Predict the structure of NAD-dependent epimerase/dehydratase domain-containing protein.
Amino acid sequence: MLGATGQIGRAAVSALAGDGWEVTAVSRGGGRDGRWDGGVRALALDRDEEGALEKALGEGCDVLVDMVAFGARHAQQLTGLAGRVGSAVVISSGAVYEDDRGRSFDTQEQPDGFPRYPVPLPETQRTVEPGGATYGTRKVLLERELLAVGDALPVTLLRAGAVHGPYCRTPRELYFVKRLLDGRRRRVLAYGGESRFHPVHVSNAAELIRLAARLPGSRVLNAADPQAPTVAGIGAAIDEVLGRETETVLVDGPAPEGAWARRRGAGPIRWCTT
């Protein structure tokens, strides 16, 4: 597994080891998670060092799980391993999608540039064009090059939603938590608090990886939790966990001019796969 000490990687290593796989957990630092099974092998490796990954693979492996693949270079690296790798599971992103007017996360700062995605958002929804300019375009380029090799290297691509769970460096929920810890008991939410960016907990992403490893194939899957809570719902859940009461002030439209953070657009964000 490449990127094994990242947020999803830690959980996925545990899931695969628990399912009977012999796991080599690769990261640049070669670290270990204390929760991993003792049989997990940790390996320090920089995939961008010429020939390093190929040497580490030796005679090959049954499944290669890649948490940190981006763009053409990594796609070519992976497709070059066809014949030595039985199948692959690669993390992509929900940022690949665009709406029917060509709007995506890449256009959201433009006037009327915020996307209006269908709900639910299926894997068949159109994507941005592949390229090297942005996170989303690089992920699309990666996806297309990997899928193009077909049965030579069966690849499951997981389009992850908003990842949450242990070891997140920049948790989206910190806005709510920090305000409560600071003693503030009122919050203002734009668009009636109805915006939704479908989350995926690391344990659910890890379970998808485990299942894909068992059932290899070439496919694209959205990776998200069973529920897609609204912003207001997330705030209420955090209140309950921390045992605090908060007054929530709902604004029908966007944040007022002069607010610390706002976005352009005519309605709430909705990125929801269910």
Notes: Residues 7-271 form a domain with the Rossmann fold fold (CATH 3.40.50.720). The radius of gyration is 20 Å.
